[in-house]
Each structure stands twice: as structure tokens, then as C-alpha cells.
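User: Show me a protein chain along with its predicted structure.
Assistant: Here is one chain, sequence first, then C-alpha cells.
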Amino acid sequence: MWTLIRHPVFGRLFAAQVVALLGTGLLTVALGLLAFDLAGAAAGAVLGTAYAIKMVAYVGLSPVAGALVSNLPRKPVLIMADLVRAVVALSLPFITEVWQIYLAIFLLQTASATFTPAFQATIPDVLEDEDDYARALSLSRLAYDLENLISPALAGLLLLLISYHWLFGGTVIGFGFSALLIWGTVLPLRQPTTSRPFRARLTRGVRIYLATPRLRGLLALTLTAAAASAFVIVNTVVVVRSGFGGTDGDVAIALAAFGGGSMIAALALPALLKRLSDRPVMMTGAALLTALMALQAFVTATWPMFLLFWALTGLGYSATLTPQGRLLRRSAHAEDRQSVFTAQFALSHVCWLVTYPLAGNAMTAWGMAPTMGILAAVGAIGLLAATRLWPEGDPVVVTHSHDDLPDDHPHLAGGGHRHAHPLVIDDEHHAWPTHG
């Protein structure tokens, strides 16, 4: 897996992702402490609202941004988005009011709504081999885990020497280095695409996504993952500081436990996915998350038990979501890949749009146990929906009929109206066949 880092293009993109996420990890810790300073015990509600605003930007703006930049070269799009994020992050140390947090988060995540789908869609073009791409997804998951492991540990060390306000400077540096690394990378040229009107570009990815059974199942599993991760992200600072009477360093340790569990899963997944298909691995991860949330609704954890729960939650979270790139790649032609990645980015964040404010406001109103019970119910709904929406087997090659196409249509050449091939939703396949 680590040999991919020596790849001349992927290695630079991976490095750009790592430094940007290190900066984002410092932002997560600093933002939680800033919210606690401004709102005290109500910090969970503030962070819940802030992350809900983040989700609104992701859900509402990522399809629009994706359609606007779909025909532009990816390199300048990625660089400009990084630079905008750096400028916004530069303003964060000067925030003195809660509403300013909300405004900064909206601007920051608007740029991320442009950057992230374009970045994710670039990796399959760089690594065409399926095994290499699976390893790249695990490396990408590990990079995200650095946000939950190394960044909090680094933040804990820095907090011994400086005020948390200075941690925002690390975010600026991370985005700046990311832009610099991308600027020095030769990215593959876009595949030629069919010229489509803006409205078609805006909705194409969502249409492909919602018409594909495995992707509908992915969306349901994302709801389960969002229920578990929302509590971790929004309420860790409240549980540790108010519940356990811990320090800022203890908050970093708790977040590192979550990241450590996720990292263990990411390291194990490339080998595991050679023996098992994506569906059982992702279903098992979602079942673990649901069981952990239900258990914590009834068990009052000690500090060591709490850290174990957080580590297991990280493991289940990574097992549920890390393989998603394989499903997206399998479900679209190269020319539609960015549209489908953008659709996943927008639709999946609808889940966090629900769970972030739910986790924050329920924690403020009722405490940890009832909140975990509510989120466990949400997670169970996602898991049960996935079992119905994503049938077992999930073949790549599907036998189907084209009664709507004329006999001389190029797609029928050599196969006739009824044939079999790797199926994705496209101009010739508007719906997934349910019979035959």
C-alpha cells in the first residue's frame, strides 16, 4: 500500500491531502475550544449549528459548483479552492461572537464543496488499476484519520505552549501547502465529455446515483455512520470537559482514540476487500456503530471505557465508509465520474445535516444517554434501509433488454436487444433493470 506514495502524481496529491487535513484537524480542536469559550456548556448546540451550516453549504452548493466547474481544468479549480479556504481560515482567530463562527464556517465549506469532489474524482483517473485504487482509498482514509489522531495530539502539545487561537494558523499553512503541492503536479487531462446544458450537468450525477441500487444502499449506510460520527464530532468536548471534568488535552486524547480505531480499519481493509465484497464489510461496520450507540444509551462509561467506545466507533466508521470510492467508480463512466462523486458528496451530507444539530441539541436538552438512544434509532433505520436497497450479490455484469432502442442503434451492435455487460446508468440505461 505504501508503495503508492512513490507514484509521481498520486504521491503529491496524497501529500496535499495530508497537509490540508492536518490543518483541518487543528481547526476542529480550536473551533471546539472557541465555542466552549463563547458558549460554555451550550458549546454542543453551537457546534451542532455550525456543522449544520457546513452541511447546508455542502448539500446546496456542491452540485452547483460541480456543474459550474465541470468543464474547467481541475488543477486551477483545486488551487483556487485551497487559497479561498486559507484566506477564510486566516480570519478565524479574530472571532468574538457566535454568529461570526457561523459565517466563517459557511464561507470555508463553500470552498470545500468545490474542492473535495473534484479531488476525489481525480484519483481514479490517476490510478486505473482496481487494487491500486483500493489501496489508495485506504491511504486516503488514513489521511482523514490523521485529522483525528495526529492533529489532536499535535494540538495537545501546542496548547502547552500557546493559546488555542494560534492553532488556526496551522489551518492556513495546511491549505497553503496543499495548493502549492497541487500547483507542482501534472494532473491527467479530463476525458472528453458530451456537451450538456447546465441543468443537465446539475442533475446528472444525482440521477445516476439514485438509480443505482448499490449507491442507494451506500446513502443509507452513510446515515448510520453520520449518526455515530456526529456525536463524536459535536459532543466530545462537552462530554470530556463537563462530564469527566477533563482538560483540553483529554479532548485531544478522546478524538485520537476515535482516529486510532479508524486507522486500524483502514490498514486492514485492502487485504480484507480481496477476500470479501464491499457489501458485507460495510454492513458489518454499520451494525457495529448501531450496537455501540445502543449500548451507550444504557451504560455509564468510565474514562477508559469511554476511550474504548470511541476507538470502536472509529473502527466501525472507517469500515462503513472507506470502500465507498470503489462503489462510485464502479457505478459511472469516466466522463460522469466527477458528477457522481459530487452527488455522493451532496447527498451524503444530507445525513450529517440531520445528525449534527440532532446530536448537539439533544445533548444540550437531555444529556448523553437519551441522545445515544435517539442516534442508535437513526443508525438502525439506515442499516435496515441498506439491506433492502442494496440486494446481496450486486453483479457488475447485468443481463437486460433495450426494447426502447431502434435495431440499428450502435449500442446494440453485436449483442441485440437483450444482452449482458457491465451496467451503469447512462444515456442508454436510464433505469436499473429489475427483471432478467
